[in-house]
Each structure stands twice: as C-alpha cells, then as structure tokens.
Amino acid sequence: MLVFKGKSDLKLHLSNLYSTKTTIGFVPTMGALHNGHLALVKKSIQKTDFTVVSIFVNPTQFDNLEDLEKYPKTLDNDLQLLKSVGCNAVYIPDASDVYDGNITSENFDFDGIDNEMEGKFRTGHFDGVATVVTKLFDIVKPTVAFFGEKDFQQLQIIKKTVDKLKLPVKVVGCPIHREKDGLAMSSRNIRLSKEHRENASIIYKTLLEVKKNYHQNSIEDLELFVKKTFKNNLLFELEYFSIADENTLKTPNQKSETTKPRAFIAVFAGPVRLIDNISLHD
Ligand code: AMP
Question: For the chain: N or C, fewer Cβ within 10 A?
C-alpha cells in the first residue's frame, strides 16, 4: 500500500493510471477508522481498479473547536486496517497541502438542502465539507467516490455539488454499519463514557420504533414520541429529530407529499454528538 503525505507525489503516481484507463475509487475519511469506513473501502476495491483513501480531519467543517481538537486520531491502526483490506493508496496530508496555505471555506449553493438539520446546528459545516471534497476530487480525480448514508445529508450535499459543478465523478452511497446493539459506527464512539456507550442503543431503538409506527401515526405524533423518549432519559440530550424527504430534506406537511421519507436524529451523549438516520420507505 502506497502512503502519500503530499499531493504532488500522489498526483504524479495517479497520472500514470489515467492514461491506462484504470478506474479510480476514492473514499474520503477523517480517520479513526472502523468497519463502516472499511465497508466503503471494500466496495471501492470491488468496483474499481485502484482505491485511494484520504485521512484528513478537515478544520473548515468544524464550528466547534473542542470537537476538532478532540477528534480521535489512530493513524497507525488506520494504516494497518487499510493495508489488511487491500487498499492501494492512502493520502494523509496536512491542512497546508490540501488548502495551499489558505484554510478557508468557499461558498456553495446547495439549493437550500444545507439549511436543514445538520446545517441548522453546525454553522458553515457543509461549505467546509464541499470545499474539502472538491479539493480532494481535484487532486485524486476519481472515477467513483464512496460516501456513507450515516451522514445522509452530507451524501446529498456531495451529490448536489457534483451535479451543479458537473464534476466527472460518480457518487455512490453505502448503507450504515452498526455495532451489535444497533449504535451506528462512528469515530466519535470511542469518546463515549462507559455509561453512555452502554445505553447508546436508545438512538437506533427510537428510530426503529418510529419506523414501525410511521404508517399508523402522524409526523407530529412521532416527533412528540421522540422528544418524550429523550426528555425521560437523563443521559442523552436530543438536539433534533426530523422526518424529511430524502431529496429535499424538508419535513412534508403531509405524508403524501413524500415518497421517500427518512427519519434523522442528532443526540448529545455528554460532550459527544451522535447522528443517525433510518429510511421509512423500505
Ligand atoms: P468520517 O471519517 O466520519 O468523515 O467518514 C468518512 C466516510 O465514512 C463518510 O462517507 C461517512 O458517511 C462514512 N461512514 C462513517 N461511519 C459510517 C457507518 N457507520 N456506516 C457507513 N458509512 C460510514
């Protein structure tokens, strides 16, 4: 497995592949890798000829300094895991290599899908995400890029960016990987206290309950149910719960207005913010 710290070496290596019509798969990550990440990498290895993974904690997508500073870093283990699944190349830049010294976000027009959910609670988050992803796409020039449905709104933001800028890359979404008790795998899970970790399955269990009752109950009643569930729980604090259409990410006034409803949730477990979502239409 090749490891690149600088984009010029990576670009030089990849330039030889473009001319041989090798398909390049790309999986951008922020490291502290788990089986959710590895599923994306395995899919890329299966679907493309040469897989590049980036590990880069992108400062411009954080609006909370503590969250950025405390973001877990497990580089040696990450490299070992990537090697073990057969990844071809890893890009581990620092911010100056990605941003050429100007570490700021560009402004994007996402047709409003950035104003919902994560966008409401994390100022500038999606401009930061789209800035880094377009920069990484420009460096790697992948044929296909793989993103997890765990960050469903992010996946839609990337698809929107690729469409609007007419970038020559296919974006593929991959299902959420979960721990045995249902907690969505996340790099942040290692920051959970023992007590929070032991009880964190409440998030997925609540989503499953919403899914089970979606057809019998109104959206308002389901929202109320989730609010009550977390009000009665002293360990976890609900930031938002939303039932929204997968494409517009807006809550429909009536269920008939959406054919693709999905439930989205963000919860604080002490200082650790966890997100999850579930399809309500399959
Ligand atoms: P991150 O390192 O958190 O930025 O995630 C890198 C990529 O892995 C993103 O496309 C995430 O959506 C995806 N990902 C993270 N956790 C999971 C999971 N539990 N299941 C599937 N994909 C995931």
Answer: C
Taking CA atoms, 145 is separated from 51, 54, 170, 204, 252, in Å, by 10, 11, 6, 27, 30
Q: Which helix (H) or strand (E) holds 69?
A: helix 65-69
Distance CA 45, CA 83 (A): 12
| Residue nearest ligand 1's atom 18 by CA | 36
Which residue matches tokens 């439930």? 263
What are the catalytic residues?
37
Distance (Å, rounded) from C-alpha 73 to C-alpha 77?
9
Per DSSP, 6 falls in state S
The CA distance from 17 to 4, in Å, is: 16
Entry pTM: 0.97
pLDDT tens column, 73-109: 999 999 999 999 999 999 999 999 999 989 999 999 9
170-181 pLDDT per residue, tens: 999 999 999 999
97, two tokens: 């290599």
Measure Cα distances from 163 to 110, 125, 136, 156, 187 in Å: 10, 19, 16, 10, 29
Report the sign of the C-alpha dihedral through residues 5, 7, 11, 12, in that order. Answer: negative
Q: Rounded to whole angstroms, how far apart are CA atoms 34 and 185?
A: 7
Count of alpha carbons within 13 angstroms of residue 144, beta-carbon side: 18
**Best of 151, 171, 177, 278 to mutate for ligand 1, by most ligand atoms within 8 A of CB?**
151
